Amino acid sequence: xxxxxSQVILEQMKRCGYKETNDERAANLIILNTCSIxxxxxxxxxxxxxxxxxxxxxxxxxxxxxxxxxxxxxRRALFERFKFLDFIVxxxxxNRLQNIIEEIKEDKTKVAYLGNFKNSLKNxxxxxxGKVSAYLPIMFGCSNxxxxxxxxxxxGKSRSxxxxxxxxxxxxxxxxxxxxxxxVGQNVTFYGKDLNNEATFSNLLKEINSIENIKRIRFITSxxxxxxxxxxxxxxxxPKVCPHIHLPIQSGSDKILSLMNRGYTIKTYQDLxxxxxxxVKNISITTDIMVGFPDETQEDFKDTxxxxxxxxxxxxxxxxxSPRKDTLAFKMxxxxxxxxxxxxxxxxxxxxxxxxxxxxxxxxxxxxEVLVEGxxxxxxxxxxxxxxxxxxxxxxxxxxxxxxxxxxxxxGYNMRTLKGNILND
Length: 425
Ligand code: SAH
Ligand code: SF4
Description:
By secondary structure, the chain is of the alpha/beta class. The chain has three domains: 2-113, Rossmann fold (3-Layer(aba) Sandwich), CATH 3.40.50; 133-361, tm_1862 like domain (pyruvate-formate lyase- activating enzyme, Alpha-Beta Horseshoe), CATH 3.80.30; 367-422, CATH 2.40.50. Helices cover 35% and strands 21% of the residues. It contains 13 helices and 17 strands. The chain has helices at residues 2-15, 39-58, 69-74, 77-81, 97-107, 151-155, 163-175, 201-209, 229-237, 254-259, 266-279, 298-311, 338-361; strands spanning 29-34, 63-68, 87-89, 111-113, 133-137, 139-140, 159-160, 180-184, 216-220, 244-246, 284-291, 315-320, 367-375, 382-386, 392-396, 405-413, 417-422. A five-stranded mixed β-barrel has the order 13-14-15-17-16. The chain has a four-stranded parallel beta sheet with strand order 1-2-3-4, with helices on both faces. Helix 5 (97-107) links the parallel strand 3 and strand 4. Helix 8 (201-209) runs parallel beside helix 9 (229-237) and helix 12 (298-311) packs parallel to helix 13. The chain is globular, with a radius of gyration of 22 Å. The mean pLDDT is 94. It binds S-adenosyl-L-homocysteine and iron/sulfur cluster (SF4). S-adenosyl-L-homocysteine is lined by residues 37-38, 142, 148-149, 186-187, 221, 223, 248, 250, 288, 290, 319, 321-322, 324.
């Protein structure tokens, strides 16, 4: 979602006449798009602001602003701590940036746009020309209020976009040469439930499936409590829906899941995995797991490891619980000592890495259909792409095949990527 928001920001700055640069010293405008999910993400922004302060001292006309969740989380306190900031803009207001920049240039005052959660439905359509794969938000905000999470406070309640509006955008993307759409939302499996009409997630998939030049449909993130049979059936009913699901489990302990207010049990999750693996050939399942949540005992953590061993996720994004003000978990008893949480995180990462690598072994010598997404930034003539089930494949080839579906034989692997040789047709 943040990646998409950055594109919306960039698009508007282009319309204001700015050009992109990688050189901070050459910039006349610096915008940090930020995340408040964990304190760690924020600390990196604070240290970056320290560097930018020096640039601003040398170049008084430099405009500096903070966009995204940190603006909404810290609000005007950011102006007190970082006196040189010109503006702060919350996620729901980023589509006003063009006006905001003009306001700052004219009035030379500090500007804050916060709250206003309904606003985000009016979207700026970032330029996607030449993109093989494009992110497309289908909803904003989240109404789940998991007890650890700040998203509902910072991005507001769930608001689905109109089905017709999304389809129109996918058609435009397809006409511009895009081959894959990635539908994004905090809980895409909830799509449409807040609209008073026939729009459902499965209807949306059905309609996109019929758009000719779109070859692949992906979506993130799915929530176990809303993953219905109707949605699972879409994988086999609509051939363009890729066999990959990101289905965050968070913990292997029912006690912790309940404290987290996740709305499902381990048994529900296990049943979903069984159904998905039975009904969708080659499906890969990725997940998010958090350790060190309040009241997580060594036993609870062991349950998480056991579940990870049992399910054998293709990949897991692992996090150490970070207390966030306003959330219910912030005030919970039995907060876990940081040292213990760190140890658990390290143990979990080591454990999952072995599983991820082992999972990739089975691809050796297989032939995969890969959508060529671009050139590797490290090596010349090295391309990267994805299999339909979301495995990254690296292989040699020339960049004029970017955007095409090619056949690749897999000759190597590690825990994150597959290595292949392209087959000539
Ligand atoms: N809407 C998505 C996730 C969005 S946040 C979902 O519910 O699946 C991405 C991940 O960040 C979450 O799945 C969770 O594992 C992690 N996360 C969220 N809040 C956190 C916190 N306070 N501390 C640590 N990790 C957190
Ligand atoms: Fe946060 Fe839970 Fe909503 Fe995901 S589903 S954004 S973790 S509140």
